[in-house]
Amino acid sequence: RKLTIVINKEKKGYVATSVDLGVVSQGKTIEEAKDNLMEAVEHYLENNPKAKLGITKSEPFVAIVELNCA
Question: Is the pTM of this model over 0.85?
Answer without folding.
Answer: no
